[in-house]
Amino acid sequence: MSVAAAPAASLLTSAARPSLWREATRRFRRHRLAMVGFTVLLVMVAGVLAGPFVYRVPIDEIDFKAKLKGPSRAHPLGTDDLGQDLLARVLYGGRISLAVGVVAMLISITIGTGVGAVAGQIGGATDHTLMRLTDLFLSLPQLPLLLLIVYLFRDTLKKTLGLEAGVFVLIVAVIGGLRWMPVARLVRAQFLSLREKEFVEAARSLGAAPLRQVVRHILPNAVGPVIVAGSLDVAAAIIAESSLSFLGLGFPPDIPTWGRILFDAKDNLDFAPHWALFPGTAIFLTVLSINYIGDGLRDALDPRKVLGGK
Amino acid sequence: MTKYFIRRLLIMVPVLAGISLVLFTILALAPGDPFEELAANPNVPREVAQALRHQYGLDDPVAVRYVRWFSAMLKGDWGFSFVSRVNVDTLIMQRLPTSLFVLGSAQLLGLLIALPIGTYSALRPYSLFDQVATTLAFIGFSLPTFFTGLVFILVFSLWLDWLPFIYRADIAATGWRWWWEHARQAAMPVAVLGLFQGATLTRFVRSAVLDVIRLDYVNTARAKGLSEGVTVVKHVIRNALIPVVTLVALQIPGIFTGAVITEQIFRIPGIGSLLISSILANDTPVIMAITFVFSCLVVIFNLLADLLYGWLDPRIAYR
Predict the structure, then answer these.
(1) Which of A10, A83, B42, B192 suits a disulfide with A63, CB 3.0-4.6 Å?
(2) What is the ipTM of this complex?
């Protein structure tokens, strides 16, 4: 093949058959609410990342003269019972809440993909044991267990890793560690069907080692449902962290995550409703956006579903 | 059916053992001595602390400790609350009925919302009704219960002043008045939990009915002249419920999450709020027992779901 022909050839193939990812992007764009959710989430992420650099009010500046004030020019979202600025606190807390969501999701899909891949690839007794383990974890009551673990391990981790990092690691690990089961089931099901497909057989007969079959041929094809499940896991993890903090058992008061602000606000509902409404709306909007994005991703990454007319 | 029931009952045993093993591992791995608090407390005599250590067998090998702990849990011998100075089982039995009442009513409300709306949506897919219902369901299950709870208190208790926001187990009234007060105070917690459940279930019901309605046997039912109502209720819904029951069973652990939060918001004297207050008071025996009770409830409700499953789909029971 001549050097000049190569780009032309690749152009031709891409025109005739758009790449899977481009096709998925196109389908995602057609899902109007998913695009709205994506935009809202993008604005929120940009806000919590860049916000504290633009809006330079400290999160812990105490001003008793301005306590429990509603939104005003000086404090766009009002203040709490110590006169601390709520916008600054919501922006700061958003970073933590979103970080918890993303990291917990990464943990849960890593464990889930690992367990599912091993179960699906090896099969037999290993598969059976791992699936029973998955069923067992699925029937554990999440929040009580989460509370129990946080209660038992918090002090040690605080001592070894410092207050902020200790609580973060603990919460993220426990939330991620209790949410991997759906992903494991999905990945295993994908493996069971993909393992028998012709292209994997072709790779096998060409002498690809099992690990190469898995990493190069099976996993890339199993990734769609994992992405969908992962996006929904972010939302679930944000809710889990907020629930913990809302019960007063998550992050300490000097780390104002959205759930923690709600916990502090809930006893002042009658004279400072804004205190609870702003962080609550932030959680709601984030979760709603992520859920719509997940819905859009499902349409985009699962062509069979679209062809079947839903 | 009896054979099926016995088989399901037997499956409960390893699941319960597995759950208890997880709980015990967590407790065993936990740093420090769960009775440190007790030993440091001058109000507790040394003998009591020693006796408790002995009861929980803290000085024995792990395997022995596990077997002893699990059999004590199964027998309902859950120890003694450090804080309230009563047996843990008495404490939990006082609280459990309230929790089950609120949870049960909420689940019922959820089903009452989800079944008609989900079915009607699926019968007219992409109609205006379907779009509104689907959007509301999406919003409903994206709204965390702790936020809805606070908004409900704000609107119905503080602004409108219609409903009390504190739940009392001891209402000083009798007859109709007692029922009325009870309904008023249960309205908000049940609505918060029920609407959330309803939103989740509506999506399940809609997609399950959509899957079934296209099948040939539904056309057959229509073709032989059955009315639309009979077709939908007897032929479509009955079969659509089979996957819904599975999904509901998978949801059960999640329902307890909502229950703990709702009980905390509305100060319902149930086991969820007992769990939180015990954690805040470092009351380890109560915390362990409640987590165990929650796990048992999950297993029991899964069993009920399995039985319902066997009734809805006899093929499963006779396999």
Answers:
(1) A83
(2) 0.80
